[in-house]
Structure formats: C-alpha cells, structure tokens
Design goal:
Structural class: alpha/beta
Largest sheet: 7 strands, mixed
Radius of gyration: 39 Å
Number of helices: 12
Helix content: 25-40%
Number of strands: 9
Order of helices and strands: HHHHHEEHEHEHEHHEEHEEH
Strand order of the largest sheet: 1-9-6-2-5-3-4
Distance between the termini: 87 Å
Strand content: 5-15%
Length: 383
Amino acid sequence: MADAKVIPFGEEPRSRRAGRRAQGRGSKSSSAAASSAASSASEPASPSSSPSPSEQPPSGPGPGRHSLASVPEQPDAVEDRMADEKHGPNDAHAPGPEAPRPGDSSWDRRLAEGLAFLRRRVTGDYEVDEFGYDKELTDQVLMSLIRPLYENYFRVEVKGIENIPSDGGALVVSNHSGTLPLDGLMMQVAVHDNHPAGRHLRLLAADLVFMLPVVNELARKAGHTLACAEDAERLLERGEIVGVMPEGFKGLGKPFGERYKLQRFGRGGFVSTALRHGVPIVPCSIVGAEEIYPMIGNSKTLARLLGFPYFPITPTFPWLGPLGALPLPTKWTIQFGEPIPTDGYPPEAAEDPMLMFNLTDQVREQIQHTLYKLLVQRRSVFF
C-alpha cells in the first residue's frame, strides 16, 4: 500500500488530461493497440521485451497493487467532452453558429421598410406617371391585398407566361367574364408575380370604372387607363405591356348558359393599334371566372335606374344581401398563347379593314380554341 501513488483530486495538469482525451479520440487501430497494452499490463513483463511507446500501459497502479477509487471528472473536463461529442474529434473547439442579432430579423427589416414607405407617402416623395400609375403603391399595397384572393381563394394556375416578351411593348388580348371584372385583376397579378422580367400589365378599362368613386382612384393607381386608342398607343410607345378585353360588358354580363362562348370582339380597334406600333398580340384564355357569379337573370329596370349595363341575378344575389356578393371559390387557369407578330406589315396596313378583320378573327379563334382545351383538361369547377 506504501507503493501506491495517489494523485490528489484536481492536481493533474490540464495538458495531461487533454493528452489522454486526444488518445481516446484516435482511430480504431489506436483503440485496439490501447486495449492490447492494457491486457499486457495485467501480466508480468518479460525482461527481454520492452514495449514500444505506443504500447506503454497507462499510468496507474501495477499488478498486485490496490485499485484506487475513480476520480470524478472535473467540470472543465465535462465541458470539453460535451464539446467533443457535439463538434466531432477533429473540430473539438469549433465555434458554434453565431446567434442572430435583433437588428437582423425579418420583422425588423419589414418594420423599417414599412416606416420608410409611410414617410415617403406623407412627404410626397414618390413617383406617379402621367396616367396616375403609382408603381410603389401597387407593388407594396394593392398587389398584397389582391394576392391572397389570387393564391388561396382562386388558386390561379398560370401557363405560357414566357410568351410575353421580356422587353418592349406588347398587347395582351383576353376573354372577359364573371359578372364583376375580377379576371382583369387576376391577370394583372399573374403577369406581375410570374414574369421572369418582373413586367407590369397596364389594363384598358371601361368608362364606368372611372365614374365610380374610390374605384376610379384605385384603378388609376393600379395602372389602369381608359380603353381608347390614344391611351393604348401612348403606353405601347413607352414599351409597356397593355391588356385589353374586347368583349367588354357583352362578355362580362352574359348569361351563365353562354359561358365560355366568346362574344363579338368589336371592330378590331386593338389590332389597328398593334399594327401601328408593330407590337406582338398575345392571346390570353381565362378559365374559372365564368362560375364565380352564375348569372341566371338580369334586372334591366334596376340596371337603368342605377346606370349599369346590367344588374345580375345569381343563386345567392340579391337574396342573401351582401353575403350573396361573395364569389364562389372556383379553380382558375390563365394561359398566355403564342404571340402573333405584327411588325412584318407595312405602316399602311393599319388602315386595311380586311387585314384587321382577319387578324381579329385569328386572335378570337385562338382564344376560343384554348378555352375549349382547358375546359376538357380541368377535373372540376372547384379543383
């Protein structure tokens, strides 16, 4: 017992403890060598053999000596071992990920952007073009209000967005339906959110839109303008994407029994505008809008009293009051077709009535054919 050497608690140098931990983190071969050395330590050593340094038995009591009670690990040793288990043997002291700072959070960034936006609105430090279009307000507010209806309620699926050019002017021609002009708003969000070049759609709206209070101001801010050749040409000259729905109120207020049957496209004024500026015509077909307000009747008397082109009667409106004005959650598909080029025609082609008729009929037939194809492909009205 006198030969036993007792190491007092806590007096072993940290460097020696670190050395033992490094030996414990060796490869499998080192572990095997250590176990062999431990077994040889329990037998009498032969005078003629001298163990190599890697086979030296661990320090401690030899054979025949009394074993000492295990010394508890020191707190710092426990912390080092936990770090080894967390980072691995080769990266025992690697620093962990830096904790996020409060100023880097997305909520703080959004708050800062919102405050900056309000400051610009109060001070008037924002731009509005000659038509009243407010790009910043549209991107940050109006689109954010319409987007839940687009993504979650109607679940709009967009196809052929690559057919809209990345730069320069273009005329998007679409069918019109749904009793209320929600299809124009959904088409605007579809171009805004899906076009790889981040383009904006400038819609041509009917006179009635700019006669209604509040609606008039919001339409101007969102980039809508009067459906006339002069405004359309000015927008195309600036290289904008212009959207037009030639059916007008005839398509918007048609009975439910005539759904997805295109009405007359007017006199082809949109074709003349495209020919004058040599911009492509992109046909657009929208499926799903016809069923949001199934129009089963039209009160012409109320329409005349209110100054509307029609007064819709649906299975829910006006019977359920304001609740009846809630649209049905149909599944929408918006497909942009192959563009029809117009830059190959001479300047005087815009005055050729036969050419305008042929191009108008070509656009109309392409939209109608795509509507029938999408109707065959869809599983149901709501899914």
